[in-house]
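quick one: pyridoxal-5'-phosphate bound model?
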Amino acid sequence: MTYLTVHTPGPGLRLHLNENTAGCSPSVLAALRALDATDTAFYPDYDAVTTAAERWFDVGPGWVQLTNGLDEGLHVVALAAARGRLDASALIVEPAFEMYASCADAAGLRAIHLAPRDDFAFPLADILAADQSVRLINLTDPNNPTGLAIPDGVIEEIAVSRRHAFVLVDEAYGEFSKRTLIGAALNRHRNLIVGRTFAKAHGLAALRVGALVAHPDTLAGIRRLLPPYSLNICAVRALLAALEDRDYLERSVAESEQSRELIYAFCRSRQIPFWRSQGNFVLMRVGSDAREIVSAVAAQGAFVRDKSLSPGCAGCIRITAGVVDHTRQCLAILESVLATRAR
Ligand SMILES: *Cc1c(COP(=O)(O)O)cnc(C)c1O
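yep, here:
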């Protein structure tokens, strides 16, 4: 099985992977520089960082399992869903983050892909109608690549009607949407698991640190499937420092909001259809030559993501909305590319 990796064609403005192009907080770098020889020689201790993460998510002891990026969390939940079962399946609501299909494949789960509805309306009826082999339902709030939120109340309805399946709600962009299911819902529904990452808003993608948040009884069964030391010491110290610097996070989130507004204004003035996004990216429909546009923009030093082959996304590209200056540079390049193509 192969995990998808996105080819980055050399140096340039990286607006194709929803990273924080400003980087991490300076206090994270200071923490990394402060590592000493025994820090690297001894197996890491996770108590302090797990407690810090529990406090961050405002949950009690036992409610958080840190993972080597959220990708590892997605992977281990798929393993847990498949465990001891023949003919189990995972439900994937398209267009979806590509890792869900990779993880289902790795775990031996059959992937059931639900086709997008018009304008990406949330397909609640299709989810509720899926067959009884479903042991994992992958949801993303807000979704990547559309940036759309799942309507309120719907996830709990799914959790109730599918008690024997894990409902994994990927909140990779929760800092930007300022919405979360973490709280009483996780206590009411023991099959509900929330996935978070510190890769995007906190700028720790290369250090690999994510989290699963769920009722302690639910997490206990999942924890057994993880290796004991999947976070390395750099990730541990980085996360401790990042969680201390809330100002940095808030500034990143505020810049993203500003960048999204710039992208919307750009699209409106050129009559390019787009979806208002709750994540740090915007999906827009540039037309049938999306792929060529992405290449032409890359030739001028900015990488954006061709999404035209994703279900429901014909003609679409996705642009990260983070640092305002980077957004402006990218839109200027896109502008010049669109101008030459219009002639
Ligand atoms: C980026 C992303 C992730 C992966 O997060 P990592 O912590 O880098 O593994 C998971 N889910 C979604 C929807 C993402 O966009």
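The pocket of pyridoxal-5'-phosphate is lined by residues 18, 69-71, 97, 140, 144, 170, 172, 197, 199-200, 205, 210 (CB under 6 Å).
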